[in-house]
Amino acid sequence: MKNSVRIRTAVVCATATIGLMTPFLFAGSADAIGNNRTVTRSCGQNHVASGKIAATSTRSAYTWAQTTRVNGDCGGYLSVALQYTDGRRSSRKTQPDHITSAYTEVTGTAFSYGLHWGCDTCNVTYS
Prior knowledge:
By secondary structure, the chain is an alpha+beta fold. Helices cover 19% and strands 41% of the residues. It has one domain (30-126). Strands 1, 2, 3, 4 and 7 form a five-stranded antiparallel sheet that branches. It has a four-stranded antiparallel sheet with strand order 6-5-8-9, with no helix packed on it.
């Protein structure tokens, strides 16, 4: 193999590696408590996600959860809550002025997972 081909191959590999690593290089300090995934229910699809954010010099540590409508015709509003490690739950947060997304965050990181409802009558999904 000629040197110019080796150099080009090395540059392509390095560029691809940097491209794949970029989200990790610029991501904030976070520790996922759940997962980022799309769930399918009988009335549509919702994206569920949750996580823990470490404390900084300007903000306390907190845990968050979010549900976002992807598609479907489920009636009512999306809602979300957090499950504490001792079994208690944070209050269920519904955002009636915004039916495409629901978000909550609570100071502290003593949580096990996020709880997500795709509409008023949907079963809960855990993340």
